# Entry
Amino acid sequence: MRETKHTLPILSVEDLQIEFRDHSLPETAVHDFDLILHAGEIVGIVGESGAGKSLSALAIAGLLKRHSAAKAGRILFDDLDLLNCPREVLREYQGDEIAVIFQEPMSSLDPLMRIGPQVEESLRIHHPDIDRAERKRRALEALESVGLTDTERVYRAYPHELSGGMRQRVMIAAAMIAEPQILIADEPTTALDVTVQAQIIALLKEINRTKNTAILFISHDLSLVRQLCGRVVVMRDGRIVEEGETARVFADPQDPYTAQLIDAIPRVEKKESAGREQGETILSVTGLDAGYPGHPPRRIVHDVSFSLKKGEILGLAGESGSGKSTLAKAVLGLLPLMNGTIDGAGLRSAMVFQDPYGSLNPAKTIEWILTEALTGGRRRNFSREELHRRAAAALAQVELPESFLERRPAELSGGQRQRVAIAEALIGSPDLIIADEPVSALDVTVQAQIITLIEKIRRETGAAILLIAHDLRVIYRVCDRVLIMKQGRIVEEGDVERVYFDPQEEYTKELLRAAGIGSERDA
Amino acid sequence: MLRKLISAAATLFAVSVLVFGAFALIPGDPALKKLGTQATQESLARMREQMGLNAPLPVRYARWAVHFINGDPGTSYSYDIPVRTLLGDKLPVTLALVLFSFVLLIVISIPLGIRHAKYEGRLFDRVFLVLGQIVMAIPPFFLGILLTWFFGIVLRVFTPGGYVSYRQDPAGFLAYLFFPALAIALPRVAMTVKLLRAEVLKEATKDYVRTAYSRGNSTMSVLYRHVLKNAFLPVLTFLAMNLTDMVAGSVVIEQVFGIPGIGRFLLVSILGRDHPVVEAIIMGLAAFIIGVNLLTDLCYRLIDPRIGGES
# Structure
């Protein structure tokens, strides 16, 4: 779509090679990386974890620790090789011509320094001739230009006093204050809610348009890259597998891996009504208020009512802080009820968590973990053979071989661990499974496999599933019905078809728009 | 903060009760001590009456406390001089010595700790780590003797035993205190550097450090502008503990360098059962320690905006 009017190359990376000697990082190598960035263009680098996309970006920003990595190749900017020049020379460009924003705006800001001096820092370092008052004026201007209001207050605030979205805006203001030619954005929206994410993407577009800043956008999220970037580079295992105009790559991927990545994005297009037979209602929640006891008690969920039928998958969507997890805990009986009723007599329930790393005991074998979930510590009630048989059966349900029983969590990949976590939930033959963001920590291709698995489990076991997710595409793909939560209340509820194609509430529309679902649907 | 002040006052009160009570209970008759074993029963009784020893304990405590608050901790049994006068010119000396060593401790530790972290694993780091181990292992009094011998007798930078009063020559007084202060500070410098080095290295892996580099900061300005403040928080508690501990360290060092502080005086007074003096010194120390803790708390609030406010 974008005309190649920006023909002036400002950065060219030639034959970049990076290798870490210690393999402590998830991304350990980059091979034969070439890239040309033209003035004013936005190029995306996509790939799953371990693809080497962040590593390449950090190398361009001059932020790879010098002694820990072996590097070769050239990074040419301004007729200068940034990869092989002395630190002092590189520093002249860092922050002044090449600026970076990172994934975690909270930890990327100095917690003990006010926002003002952090925003001004590049200016102070590279333009010492600008005096204090002028610097402050420019900082306030920069804060305003990233859409922050009440800039005087923000200027004096500390990072912990701002919201996640505001922090990322501050990071962008700090990066843009010296008007760099290149902005490197390393997963800048991954830690943010969808609506905030959409705002940050819009802001990056605007900066690109008004200041003609070239942007190198690193992301694992293909739909974001599609919205933002004119050109895209696809990486896998440290190598570039495909590169080209974004529209072309999405319409006609040349590399099979690219095609697989694109396929893995859950699509939101009308599905034929499955005509699932409706089972009996097994759980009904009415007028539920829940929260955390204390002085004063914190009431987080307000007046929530919904029901769940046998074999149904109900999606629970909303942004962080909307009360999704609190609601799940209350339904499981982990929090005291403050009001309302939960009617699900004799229901066997189980939970699957987001982080398959943290939720499995690293010291135990998979067999121990699975059987522990079954026996609850009272192993004597079961024979050894039965335990083994049940554990193997649970593994088979999640499509893992019996040999995995001997392994420990550290020996498994992220996707395999999530399968084990699901097996742990399945082993007690539950009627209800509550899955709290079960795929959000996983790469897209793995995510697609787990989604398929969840559907299979519903088919085979008939268990009802309450699926909590912030990703509306995942919910559409898996769920029959969806609840949209905002600030502890359910604002909209209905069949996914109805909610996604004919949303009634403004907030639902906003969420769908932010996730880029509306545009795709109309196309 | 108000709550902290109240709890500090309560602590001080508890200490005073404990101190006064302890000295009232331990055997030994101050009147007898004052008049000597030759005294008659009558003169002893008169002396007890005069010293107010016959009143019940709470009354005696109240009397003592009221006087103490009004700045009169009583009269020394041994010298028959007001304790105030007695301690008046000794307390500032010890205080100066302790504060001087504390300043040295900070001034030496911070740059050294930062440099250690910067040159982690390199020659500088390794040489000074070994040196630090050695210094840590030497007791301060022996370090004092070594310093006296080397700088006083071999190099003749200062005159051992040539103490000058701060009333006569403040500059000369401070100059004389330099080596004793150094002897108190050095072992603690070694410990502080080791701690600071570890904290700086831990902080250096954080994301905001990467951000600082991305703006074109040099390593030194990243370390001083961003890392130091963050790494310093855990060190602060350690330093505060040291400051109170250094008062005890000064007692020995004052002996080695012949400095007329409260150190020697405290020992003499304890042995001589000079209760008013010992009580005054202990109360002084307690107040100092409580004050240091309050100050530390204040420092935390000043450095870290995430602390305080709500409590």
The domain at 91-260 of chain B is CATH 1.10.3720.10 (MetI-like fold).
